[in-house]
Amino acid sequence: MTTHAAPLERQAEQQVSRLPAWEQPNADIREEHDAYVLELEMPGVSKAGIEVTVEQNQLTIVGHRSDAAPQGEVVYQESRRADFRRTFELDPSINAAKIQAKMEQGILRLTLPKAESIKPRKIQVAD
Amino acid sequence: MNLIRYQEPELATWSPLNRLSSLREEMNRLLDGSLAGFSGSAGLFGGWNPTVDVFQDKDNVLIKAELPGMKKEDIDITFQEGTLTICGERKQESEVKEGEVYRSERFFGKFHRTVSMPTKVDAEKIKASYKDGILSVQLPKAAEAKAKQIDVSVS
Question: Which of A33, B119, B133, B141 could in theory staple to A43 by disulfide, Cβ–Cβ 3.0 to 4.6 A?
Answer without folding.
Answer: B133
